Structure formats: C-alpha cells, structure tokens
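Researcher: Re-running this chain for the archive, since the previous output was lost when a drive failed. Same request as before.
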Amino acid sequence: MSLFLQLGFQGIALGMVYGLIGLGFVIMFKGSHTFNFAHGEIVAIGAYSVLALMAVMPWGLAFVIAVITTVVLAVLIEAVFLRRMVGKSVTTVVLATLGISIMLHQAILMIWGVGTHGSAGPVGSGTVNVGSVVLPWSGIATIGTSVVVLAGLAYFFQKTPYGLALRATASHQEAALAQGIDVRRMFALSWGLAAFLAVVAGVFLASFPRVVSPSLGVVALLAIPAIVIGGMDSLVGAIVGGLIVGLIQVMGSYYLSDIGGGRLHEVLPYIVMFAVLVVRPYGLFGSKSIERV
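Model: Regenerated structure tokens:
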C-alpha cells in the first residue's frame, strides 16, 4: 500500500506538470485560435534559461528573469510569425508552428549542446517520510507550486479586467472587438501567459528525472494527449487530463514493467487518448463545437 501511495503521489506531481503545459496549449488555442506545436520547445527554453541564470544568481531571481525572457520571446514569435497567419488555413498555421519548433530546438542545441545538465528545480533531491510513505521534496514543491499558480490563474480569469477581456476574446472575437477590446493585445497576452506556465512547468518537468536535456521539448508534448483527453478548449480539462496522463505513466512504469520491454507506459497516454476520442471526440470536458482537423 505504501508503494501504491508513493507512486500515486509521483503520478500526481508529474500530472500537475503536464496540466500546466496543457493549460498553456489551451490558453493559446482559446485566446488566439492557434495550436502551437512549438510550445514544447518554449518549455525547454524556460528550463534552460533558469539553469543558465542560476549559475550566477540566486534561484528566485534566475526564475523571474527566465520568465521575463521567455514571455518576451513568445510574444515576439506571436507578433512576428503567427500574426501574419491570420486568415490562413489551419494546415498553414500548424506547419508554421512546426517550423518554429524546429528552429527553437536547433537554437537550444547551438547554445547548450546535446548533453544533459543538472536540475533547474528550486529544491534538492532529498525526501521526507510521511508514515511509511517516502515523498521527494521535488514532488512536494511541484504540487505546491502548481496549486498556487492555478489559484492565481483562477483569480486572474475571474476577477481582473484583463482576465475577463481574454475570456471574452476566447468566446467570440468579433463581439469582443465590438466591445472595444484590443484583440491583438489579447493574442499577445495569451501567448505571454502560456510562456509563463511553460517556464514553471519546464523547471519541474526537469525533475522527472533531475536533468535538463534537449529532449525536454519532446517530453513536454506528452501534454497533447492530456488536453485531448480533457478537451482542447477546457482549462479544467487540461488539469484533469494532465493528472490522468501522469498517473497512468507512473503507475504503468512500475506495474506493467514486464510488458513491452518496460516501455508500455510510454504509449499508454496515447492508448487512453484514442479510447476517449472514440467515445467523446471533444474530450471529457470539451465543447462539442470543436472542429477536428
């Protein structure tokens, strides 16, 4: 039982990370009607930025500067590349974000190389015992930080003028424009918010395991089955989907380790995703009006 609880805790911690990444995808999709395949590389850039800066300054200051840098980068990408895609076909926009993803990945390789680096997290590799269950500090920090960030986002969307304007834009762009809302500013805000979530998620994603590597961007794309399961236009669905993916990955890596050469847990999220798509093509919490592409 202790092992089951320990694996469950690790699964929830990993799932919260996928949930934060998934939220970034959903906020961009709802705010600017763009599915950004480069978001995984933005997650990796956030983690690398914190890692590089923490070598010369305290972790907290490194995190703040990394957030500012990554948000500026994301807003520039939206303004320089994606804004020119308004009115283009979905296929054109998807190909554009894939091209941006490749460019960002190559930039990571040129700046930081192909090797792995140490953890970018705020806590060490220590553990704490709660009864007979051993909990890593990195998991506690991941869940605690995620809860604080989610509470902040809920307040932002429900109580602040910019949050309400972003929700109005996501609901109906023409109606928001008629109400005097600067839709282009809302596009930039959605990308900036997604970049902030990418840095937070990137820091803690590098705790599974505790290394920062060029493959971090690919790992971050595991948030895609999470948002498909939860619903591509649902903020709640992104979190629920992330938790489902995190739990089945961690549980599967232990209880199904004798099947498929110990790699079955890597495809389990996609198996669950296809199962959900068959029953509910719009996801567990998504809207039926979502168009499949």
